[in-house]
Amino acid sequence: MGERKVYQKIKKDLSQAQIKIGRDQLFSILKANKMLIRKSVRHIHTTNSRHWYKKHPNLIREMVPESPNQLWVSDITYLQKERGFMYLSLITDAYSRKIVGYYIGDTLEASNTIKALRMALENTPNLMGGLIHHSDRGMQYCCYAYVKLLQDHNIKISMTEKGDPLENAIAERVNGILKQEYLDYKEVYDNQKLKEVIDYYNNERPHMSCNMLTPNDAHQKTGKLNRTWKNYYKNNNLVKQYQD
Q1: Which of 76, 79, 179, 210 has a CB 3.0–4.6 Å from the CB of 46, allowing a cystine?
Q2: Helix (H) or strand (E) holding 196
Q3: In angstroms, rounded to a whole number, what is the distance separating the alpha carbons of residues 1 and 178?
């Protein structure tokens, strides 16, 4: 995880051991030992929006959820293997940043995204009304089977409209966290192995967008969560959502 999260988790132990070290000094130590997170570059696209399925409007402009299960965001990302790719479908609660559903497969078939959605629904059996599901306009999310599953559970459907990643910023950010911090390059994952990674992410990684709570802890809260990052883009609400 990033340096600020590491510092948050170890500063109590440092104090008990009477070790005086600030965040900037920790950053320098990590940098000198090549232990900072390296940003990845996106090489391939997983979204095909050139299809004849119905595309739904964006319902979440300037929306800031104030409790769990008000807004789920979904996306697909790729993991590179020695030969070819694997494709990871994720569903994340926008309030708590908790991953509530996932599935990894060798193809971009809609059946994989449906399996991720079914997991999210099984993990949240007592859904209240008003939940919005937000995604890009890829055919996996627009196909009849996926839309019907959402409608059967009275979930409102929202989609990006301009193809800008910032329209689905939270989902994109969670993709990046998993790939940069937890998923080893070219290692082959199955859903059991992925479960260990996501359990660690949900239970151990504090989020600056959730008052430095882990996603599972934040998922037990309601009301506005304090953001612990500085906003350098006051006039861009989409950039605000992109922080972690």
Answers
A1: 76
A2: helix 191-204
A3: 9
At residue 129, the pLDDT reads 83
Token pair in block for residue 155: 């979930």
Q: Is the dihedral of CA 31, 33, 34, 37 positive or negative?
A: negative
Q: How many CB atoms lie within 10 A of CB 228?
A: 16
Can you spell out the DSSP letters for 109-144?
-HHHHHHHHHHHHHH-TTPPTT-EEEE-S-HHHHSH
Pairing of strands 132-135, 71-80: parallel
Backbone angles phi, psi at 175, to 5 degrees: -55, -50
Other CB atoms within 10 Å distance of the CB of residue 108: 18
User: Contact, 79 vs 189, CB < 8 A?
Assistant: yes
SS percent in the chain: helix, strand, coil, step 5: 40, 15, 45
pTM: 0.77
The DSSP output letter for 15 is H
Mean pLDDT by 10 residues, the chain (244 residues): 74 81 77 71 56 86 93 92 87 98 94 97 90 95 96 96 82 90 78 93 93 95 83 45 46
SS3 99: strand
Sheet harboring 99-105: ordered strands across? Answer: 99-105, 85-93, 71-80, 132-135, 156-159
Which tokens belong to 100?
């509530």
